Amino acid sequence: MSNSDYRHIGVHPVSAALGAEITGVNIAKGLSDEQFEEIRRAFFENLVIMIRDQDLSEEQQCEFAARFGKLTKSAGLKGDNPIFMVTKSADDRGNNIGGHWHADGTQMEHAPLGSALYAMQVPPYGGDTMFCNLYMAYELLSPGMKAIAEQLIVVHSGKLAYSGKGHVVQDLLDRRADMYDFEAGRIDSEHPLVRIIPETGRKVLYAPSPMAYYFKDMSMQDSEPLLRYFQHIAERAEFTCRFRWTKGALLLWDNRATYHYALNDYYGWDRIMRRVQIEGERPFGPAKPAMEPVSSPFAAVRAADPVVR
Ligand code: SIN
Which of 83, 86, 258, 264 has most ligand 1 atoms within 8 Å of CB, for mutation? Predict the structure, then answer.
C-alpha cells in the first residue's frame, strides 16, 4: 500500500521520513467507516497525521481519539478528565511543555499509544512540532549493535523527572502544580530498548529521552554513554519531519514509534493546545526477562548511587 492508494481521504506526506497531512475529512460532521479505516491506515503508515481546519469540541476530540483505543490520563494529572491543556502565554519568557526530544509518559507501565493535539490558538510564526521516526533509528543500527540493543531493558523514571532535578525544570512544575499530583507521576517502569509495534509487527528503537534514565543491571556510568548514543541516532535530521500549526489543526502521533519536540520560539505570542492521550499496550520486545542481580565487589558503590540503588 502507498499513500496514493487511498480512496476516501487525501494523504499528503510532509517529509520522506514520516508525517502526512490528511484532506477531505470533517471530523465534527462524522466519518464514514471507510474514511476512518483509511485514517487509521494512514496513521500507522505515516506515524504522524495532521488534519487541518477542524472545529472540534472537547467531546468530539475525545470521541475521535477514542476510536484508536481507550483514553488515558497523563501520569499524575488530577481529576477524571483526560484533557490536558498544553499552553504558553505571550508574557511567559520561560520554558514550554515538551521543548525537548521525548515521547509522552514513558514512565508509565502502559505508556500512551498516541496523542491527539488540537490547536486552539497558535502564534503567527514559530511553535512548530518536530517528530522523528524510531523505526528508522532501529534500522540504522548495524547487525551487531541490533543484537546488543535487543538484549537491553531501559528504566524510565518519573521520580527524577518530577523532582525538579530532571528535565522538567522547577518553573514548569510550579506552573502545573494545580493540575498535577506529582507524587502519583513519580513512578518507574522497565521497557525493552527495542520494542515491537503490534499493528505493524516491526521494531523501533524505544529509548525515549529524557525519562529513560539507565539500563537495567547497569550502572549510571555504563548506561549514560549508551543512552546518549541511541538517542543521537534517533534524532538524526533525515529521520524527522516538522509540522507548522494553523488554528483548528488536529495532530495525531504514534507515541511509541516517534519522539516529538515542541519548539519554544514564539516569545510574545500565545499558544494554546488541547491534548488527549490513548492508552498503549505494555511495551514488549525481544529483550529477555531481566537478569537476577549478581553479587559483585561494586555492589556497595551501586547501592550508594542515588538513582540505581
Ligand atoms: C507535547 O509534548 O505533548 C506537546 C507538543 C506540542 O505542544 O507541540
Answer: 86
